[in-house]
Amino acid sequence: MYVATLASEDDFDGWREAARGLVAAGVPASEVVWQVGDRPTDLFGSAPILAAQAPAFRLPSAFVHMLERVILHRDPERFGLLYGLLLRVVADPRVLHDQADPVLCRVQAMFQTIRRDMHKMRAFLRFREVETDGETRFVGWFEPEHHVVRANAAFFIGRYATMRWSILTPEVSVHWDCRTLSEGPGARRSDAPEGDPLEAVWKTYYRSIFNPARVMTGAMLKEMPRKYWKNMFETALVPELIAGAQAREAGMIERARTAPVQNGAKPWDALREEATGCRRCPLWKPATQTVFGQGPLDAEIMVVGEQPGDQEDLAGEPFVGPAGKVFDEAMTAAGIERSRVYVTNAVKHFKFEPRGKRRIHAKPGTGEIDACRWWVEQERAILRPRMTIAMGATAGRSLLGRAVTVGRERGRPLALPGGGEGWLTVHPSYLLRLPDKAKADQEFAAFVHDLRSAAARL
Fold first, then answer.
1. Residues 220, 112: one domain?
2. Interatomic CA distance for residues 234 and 255, integer angstroms
3. What is the pLDDT of residue 128?
4. What is the Cα–Cα distance from 201 to 184, expressed in whole angstroms?
5. Fewer C-beta neighbours within 10 Å, C or N terminus of the chain?
6. CB within 8 Å of 434: residues ≥ 6 apart
7. Residue ranges of the chain with per-residue pLDDT less than 70
């Protein structure tokens, strides 16, 4: 067995020199013990690392970069894992193109992990200003998951070259005096300052720009886990801002609803305007625009569909496409004046799959329905309809807050959260998909019967 001793957990240069000697001697990965400092590793590892002159061999620069980054991982097997992969690549470079190779896949996953950890340090580290012996210094605290502090130091030197700063972490601390980078031992969270006078100004600013309609909590937690919140003065506000977001929005909408109409503005204008910038789910990215509800605000009947279609997305109005035409015909047959009904959708953005030049409707997911449910609830709060007709299971889930089956709930009144009565029926797009004309005529008659029965409840 051979012992390869490295100076530190992130000693890539030491690992590279040791690997060169081992490759030159043809030592297999199973015969090498990798050791950091004088820490004991293997009782049987007694032979020193070889000093043989390594023959020249070239490696792809991207592979060398990956090796350099994966060394920073906390996995204790990484040194031997990378050496074993290096041996195989030297023997056959095609190994790097085998995406089914389990070792290569594991190393690539570790590489991505390090990239994320380095990014999080750059994005979530916050400096606080302190005065020490009449000198201003900026001190930041961070808890990286891997050994990325030294590798990241160059980024902070480039970004804050004219500042004196210190980055404290549990394993190592780095300090910059505008000329030289130095290192120190690890620190404790209590060694870092808690705040500075400017933080109160920043917190006031973040409170003022916080827009609850644009909050995507799931995406935020994915990119910025809660473990980092305690070290960032702005994120310390996030829990309370999220907790009070809907209450504040509801208050805003209630004030808009009860305020006197001025210059012909409708009470729900504030809600509609806010919805145009909705970022509660990712559907806003490919969609052309938000398609909000439409109709008289004193309507006794509110109809909720699934989502806008291709034509609705382009026009910015609900129920103007093929399904909308079927809906209009059914309303007329049911004896309901279409102009006296408020129509909207459970999801306000068009979800689709591109196929050539066409955009094919895709069913909204549970998360997208739940994210958009708040808008439907506020529409109902403003209109206060006596009857709300849900067309399809998506609309039913939006109104009831749970999964529903049209066949089970259809044809009977449903008590809705927040008051009012609901009625569940099919979506008119279902009728368009029926290939048999006799069946389609039968289902259309049933749809008309549902609409007529719901209106009769008034």
1. no
2. 29
3. 86
4. 32
5. C
6. 440, 443
7. 39-56, 195-224, 226-267
Whether residue 256 is contained in a domain is answered as no
Give residue 347's pLDDT. Answer: 97
Amino acid 458: pLDDT: 86
Given a contact cutoff of 8 angstroms between Cβ atoms, the answer to whether 251 and 341 are in contact is no
CA–CA distance, 386 with 66 (Å, rounded to integer)? 63
Q: What is the DSSP string of 42-57?
A: -TT--BPPP-PPPPP-
Provide the residue range defining the domain that includes 336.
266-456
Per-residue DSSP letter, 300: S
Looking at the structure, do residues 224 and 350 belong to the same domain, yes or no?
Answer: no
Give the single-character DSSP code of 321. S
Q: How far is CA 40 from CA 17, 75, 298, 331, in A?
A: 21, 17, 79, 82
Cα separation values, 60 from 12, 64, 67, Å: 17, 6, 11
Residue 55 confidence (pLDDT): 60
Question: For position 192, what pLDDT does the model report?
Answer: 83
pLDDT at 132: 76
Opening angle at CA 329, ends 323 and 330, nearest 5: 90
8 Å CB contact between 386 and 421: yes
Taking alpha carbons only, the member of 69, 104, 64 closest to residue 85 is 104
Q: Are residues 33 and 144 in the same domain?
A: no
Cα-Cα end-to-end distance for the chain:
87
The pLDDT assigned to 343 comes to: 97
Distances (CA, A) of 344 to 187, 278, 365, 383, 389: 57, 16, 18, 12, 10
33: helix, strand or coil: strand
* Tokens coding 133: 């012996």
Residues 278 and 365 in one domain: yes
Tell me what pLDDT residue 217 has. Answer: 61
**Cα gap 299→301, rounded to integer Å:** 5
Euclidean distance between CA atoms 314 and 321, whole angstroms: 10
